[in-house]
Amino acid sequence: MPRPHRSQQFSPEEICYVHCIQRCVRRAWLAGVDPVSGVDYSFRKEWIRRRMEALASVFAIDVLSYAIMSNHIHQILRNRPDVCAQWSDEEVAIRWLRVFPGRRMEEHLAEPTENDVKTLVRDKKRLAEVRRRLCDVSWFMRALSEPIARMANFQDQCTGRFWEGRFKAQRIIDDAGLLACSMYVDLNPVRAAIAGGPEGCQFTSAYDRAEAQKGEQVDSAAFDLKPIPTEEAGRKIRETPVDDLRKERKVKRRNPTGRRILRDAWLSPLTMKPDNLSGEAEVHTGGVRSSDRGFLNLAWEDYWELLCWTAKQSVQGVKAEVPARLAKRLAALGIDVSMWRDLVWNWQRYFGKSACVGRPESMKQHAEQTGRHHYRGQGSGAVCFA
Fold it and tell me: What's domain 6-175+202-297+351-375's superfamily in CATH?
């Protein structure tokens, strides 16, 4: 069965949950310790994390979970057209121009000026297309992947592909699939025997949330959403030496806004607010993410407890009971508690080749809505659900 088109999986016009996987070319360890040459490229994981953080501050897309491995990355993204609709034309313009300014100064992208913003705002047709792209998962992944590939190729003094190809996407269609997929993503380093437990999985969303609970802060990678006055930009180009401009840009790239934030502040909150209506946009106004809306009906403490318990069930065939309080939560989502360990640890067996993730009845319903007979994984994954 051929892989469905992106337009059949998700649309910028509706809120969708998407599990995205992007692999390095030939699955080489281009972001870890190369087993052949012995060269350590692990520092590139921080490149990827900071780029994700920067894009989360301008796109109408929530980053729910992520894991950066040595030869691939996982992300669970949620596009937010409802949030983007609340942004003014000027906000949309500056957000877009921060990522795609269309001009270069030396080898760097030029910073948008007030005149650039006004020009885009006046072009209503172009602005409408830009507003749509800011809600598009494909454009988010493009803005993430391309700069990383350019930086790595420049560093290695080579040309060609860094990534294997276009990212793989899985549409997540219900709460059960979302919880299981999120656990699978957060436990990727444990499954790969890189870490013994979630507390050692550094480049994951679970690690960021756990460290933020302890108060850890990092330099914010969020874009500065204020355009430069046109006159000031011109004066700088005319009067400032090129070397000074390069130093200034280098400093600004490290911390564009000069702020320090909690390590997980750019991620979507994990727990949904019970007192808010599901239709509320919950627009974020702090400049580090698009919204303040959670994605699971589960407290962080419960999520962390279940994650740690699942991480310990690494030996196949060894049966251990899920803590009773957490077992009730899983059962309420329609998950067979006795199969929870198998579902997370053997995710690839059940949903590795599926374009859709969720309970069998949810997958069947979504297939009918999209004009398909069924989804791959619909039958094999049924054993994990009550």
Answer: Transposase IS200-like (3.30.70.1290)
